[in-house]
Amino acid sequence: RGASSARGSSGIPVKLNVYQPSQAQQQRQQQQQQTRTAGTNTVSQVPNVPGFGVYHSGVVIHGREYTFGGGGSGTGVVEHAPGAAYGQKNGNWQYYKTVDLGTTKLNSSQISQALSDLRGMFPSKSYDLMGKNCNHFCELFCMKLGVTYPGWVNRAAKMANSFRGGTDFVEKQKAVIMEQERKRKEREEKKKELKLRQGQLKPEAPQGAKGVVLVQVNCPSGNKVRRRFRQTDTLGDVMEFVYASDAEVKRKGFELIQRMPRMVFADHTKTLAAAGIRGQANLFVRKK
Asked: Each residue of 81-138: pLDDT tens digit?
């Protein structure tokens, strides 16, 4: 039932454990169809809909199972050993099946960040069996992992929530998560681009070498970057370093200035010595 924690060449395996109401719970449900137990992980609140099952689910990744429930304080996101449903001890659920969802391209750090985001989105007190349940959590977690959550698992609760005039929590959050994912990918692309640019730089001047200039550049992003240059290096070499340090700048789209005394370094072919830069320099980037 559990997922392997080994990572293959194509990514980390993701599985979904699905649980169905136990026989005892089904009997209780038939006897108490309209029971309302707010904030608990029961199944008696969802009406019977022909062709629609009522299920509990948990996402299995790295050998642990993650799900969501109410009735406590703090976050409602919990983790446990795969195959042991949250709420199973009280006799509500029994194991039904495991669905292989493929693999995620996220690394361990990114998965931890996704879970951290979801813990904030799913406080225990926000649990609602039809509007925000364990399956809503799993669907959003799958979305962050880049795998497809099987729609049949939460179909009954979504339909019941629609009948009562509720809005779908997952649909409300999709736009937010998609924007977060867009920004994450954008950051990753910028990191890759900067790494590529840094690999094209001239070697840094060795520490303690004769004629070394320590240059600090104040970048548009707010970063302060430092590097050792030789006096024979050019202002163009310094600009290439800036270009490789800040994704916000464009090659030849900026110039370097010094504020005290004020100087604008326009001739990029000049050596640092010829430009009067010796010892240490504190430079600023000004976009053209």
From this structure: 998 776 556 567 888 999 999 999 999 999 999 999 999 999 999 998 888 999 999 9
| CA within 13 Å, CB half, 246 | 25
Output phi, psi for 261, to 5 deg.
-70, 155
Q: Note the residue count of the chain.
A: 288
What are the CA-CA distances from residue 38 to residues 42, 66, 70, 129, 163 (Å)? 9, 22, 9, 8, 18
Is residue 18 packed enough to be buried (19+ CB in 10 Å), middle (13-18) or exposed (0-12)? Answer: buried
Nearest to 202 by CA among 254, 247, 241: 241
Tell me the C-alpha to C-alpha distance, in Å, between residue 267 and each of 92, 252, 270.
76, 12, 6
Active site residues: 56, 134
The tens digit of pLDDT for each residue in 150-162 reads: 999 998 888 888 8
Which amino acid is residue 61, in one-letter code?
I
For residues 166 and 177, give the distance between their C-alpha atoms in angstroms, rounded to a whole number.
Answer: 21
pTM of the model: 0.58
Q: Which two tokens stand for residue 150?
A: 């099987």
With beta carbons less than 8 A apart as the criterion, state whether 284 and 257 touch: yes
How many helices and strands in the chain, by DSSP H and E? Answer: 6, 10
**Cα gap 97→89, rounded to integer Å:** 18
Specify the amino acid at residue 57: S
Tell how strand 56-61 and strand 12-21 pair up: antiparallel
* Residue 25 scores a pLDDT above 70: no
- Contact between residue 188 and residue 106 where contact means Cβ atoms under 8 Å apart: no
Instruction: Give yes or no for a contact between 125 and 70, defined as CB atoms under 8 angstroms apart.
Output: yes
Rg of the chain, C-alpha, whole Å: 28
